[in-house]
Amino acid sequence: MNPKVALLDMDGTLYDSMGNHADSWARLCREEGIDCTRDEFFLYEGRTGASTIDLLIQRQWGRHATDQEKERMYRKKTEYFNQLPEVGPMPGARRLLEEMKEIGLGRVIVTGSGQASLLDRLQKDFPGAFSAEMMVTSRNVTKGKPHPEPYIRGMQMAGVSPSHALAVENAPLGVESASRAGVFTVGLTTGPVPAAELYEAGAAIVYPSMEAFAEDFHILMFNLLTTSAE
């Protein structure tokens, strides 16, 4: 491996936002008469909103969601998310991005979200870390995570092959997406999902937090480059 680009998830990786997402989805389900548990939405992270709604409706009523239902319900979920207290960057995220910039590692956002309230904050919270043309969101893929398309699209944007990419994810569906795209994937346990599930989904290594990964980043890069040279 000779990583030249990092492909980074957003929710639960760069932002401590998954609790708000889970609360918003749970509120929507209660109002729509859909049975759910709050923590199950940590497992769905990485899916597009439309895919999550289709999954919920299939489970509850045994049919696919209509396009109108997907649009209406995701709009409500977004409203509920925006009503909650603003989330902050994940502890350790700024340090990690600064260290990536320091060694010249490119950076691409790969998220299943279309949540403009967070996407629009990236430049303010992480100045100079990302460019607008280097973002894969739910708006420009046809198949969300766990399909490999989002990470393939990210590599295409950056002009790199899997051997020149490194993915950073905190959810099983995202890890599976990156792994299926052939990318060395770092897993982070920033929520209730245990490390074992991230390894099972295809993570090459799992850290207990973003702070722990930032602390170990240069060592990991050295090991990857040394192994590649051998």
Low-confidence stretches: none
Helix/strand class? alpha/beta
Strand order of the largest sheet: 3-2-1-4-5-6
Number of helices: 11
Basic shape: globular
SSE pattern, N- to C-terminal:
EHHHHHEHHEHEHEHEH
Helix content: 40-55%
Please outline the major beta sheet: 6 strands, parallel
Mean pLDDT, as a whole number? Answer: 92
N-end to C-end Cα span: 10 Å
| Strand content bin | 5-15%
> What is the CA-based Rg, rounded?
17 Å
How many extended strands?
6
Give a written overview of the molecule.
The relative contact order is 0.18. Helix 9 (172-180) links the parallel strand 4 and strand 5 (184-188). The model has no long low-confidence stretch (mean pLDDT 92). The longest helix is centred in the C-terminal third of the chain and has 20 residues, at 210-229. It contains 11 helices and 6 strands. It has a 6-stranded parallel beta sheet with strand order 3-2-1-4-5-6, sandwiched between helices. It is an alpha/beta fold and 230 residues long. Helix content is 49%, strand content 10%.
Brief synopsis:
This protein is an alpha/beta fold. The protein has helices spanning 18-32, 40-43, 49-61, 67-83, 93-102, 116-119, 122-125, 149-158, 172-180, 195-201, 210-229; strands spanning 5-8, 106-110, 135-136, 165-169, 184-188, 205-207. The protein has a six-stranded parallel β-sheet, with helices on both faces.
Which descriptors apply to this entry?
six-stranded parallel sheet; 230 residues; globular; 11 helices; alpha/beta; 6 strands
